[in-house]
């Protein structure tokens, strides 16, 4: 990646001369945040053994992060709009690095859970700042397509990269390095931020919508917590139902208040826009399916096929490569020429086909013949989807709303991941139990039947993931009507400038 020459006709006269180096800094920070949604998954058995976690409590290593991240994103986005995106970007980096170091040095489960929650809280400040900085740095349609192609590739491949890095670090160093690794990344990104990132002055005279913060963050936290607890307690549990009902009620009150607040946390015009609403829903459904894929394949590789942590992580490399190619080489090149849904709808169809291919898994499946084709299709489909979603959501947004718009997109990802993990895991466990009841007639062959039951549960859940991808394609087709940015960007940019 090289910066355009001074006379580059694609760069406007007032374009930031350091914008491409700024993209490197933003990409590093975003990659760090996304990696941490999955990097500790493969390390979890080692951490559980060393710190003495119980089976019922080990989920909090994952849940503490997603709960804080998903619940505080809207607040983080609005803070970025109020005090400045570069400032909150730096605060998020420093806090994330410190929390990561704390988690790596954990001496007990409680300390690790607390550190993961702190990571999630600072990620909620960092992530919307990163995306909004990208949106306000690249305004030329051609350059914007390239920048969001790279950013979309990171979003699509970061979770899979987390498995790869987590597996290698756990096997060859120690599980603690899955957390320590964030510190040097954050230091490099922080140093670069001070030299190459620029931001317009923060809004003056603006106030934080405190009732909106309490209602919105509490509602999202209750939903994320409820879906997380459903995995272990069951969907019919009164505590789970109470959390979900409270979450819905709080979010309904949040919407009611946002329509009346003088300075709302989430201006409703952002989600009332048809294209953005379609992108938010598409992203949530796509992530629901992909998080299910990550979960089941991780256990399939290690438990059924007997892969080591490092080999399990490396098995996701083709998925990562396909996502990067789909986002940068296909979507990044075509977005300025075709409408976003011309990429997103086929992308979701490819993703659904990839999931359907993986439903053929058995206890004796081979990687090259049975798993690799599904990974390539799913990765390519997600690459085609991520990049136009990011570009469409942030196009034409007033500068003072760019942070909260980015936060809303990140929220749809985190909530989708939590819902998908809980929902598909419940489907898999229920299907496994039903298979055991139907096929386990005596003690003979118990181990083999148990393995077959586990794989059967995974395949049923993967069918559901395929259905979610198809539904995302339908949502995209019906709701996202934006034209190609090459034609639509000038008009939207003019509106954004007049509002901002």
TrEMBL record:
GO biological process: response to antibiotic
CDD domains the record matches: MFS_MMR_MDR_like
Source species, domain of life: Bacteria
InterPro entries, alphabetized: EmrB-like (IPR004638), MFS (IPR011701), MFS_dom (IPR020846), MFS_trans_sf (IPR036259), Sugar_transporter_CS (IPR005829)
Membrane spanning residue stretches: 20-40, 60-77, 89-111, 117-135, 147-169, 175-196, 208-227, 239-257, 278-301, 313-331, 343-363, 375-398, 460-482
Major facilitator superfamily (MFS) profile domain ranges (all copies): 22-484
Cellular compartments annotated: Cell membrane
GO cellular component, one term: plasma membrane
One function term, GO molecular function aspect: transmembrane transporter activity
Key words, A-Z: Antibiotic resistance, Cell membrane, Membrane, Transmembrane, Transmembrane helix, Transport
Protein's membrane topology: Multi-pass membrane protein
Classification via NCBIfam families: efflux_EmrB (TIGR00711)
PANTHER family: BLR6921 PROTEIN, MAJOR FACILITATOR SUPERFAMILY MULTIDRUG TRANSPORTER MFSC
Name under which the protein is recorded: MFS transporter
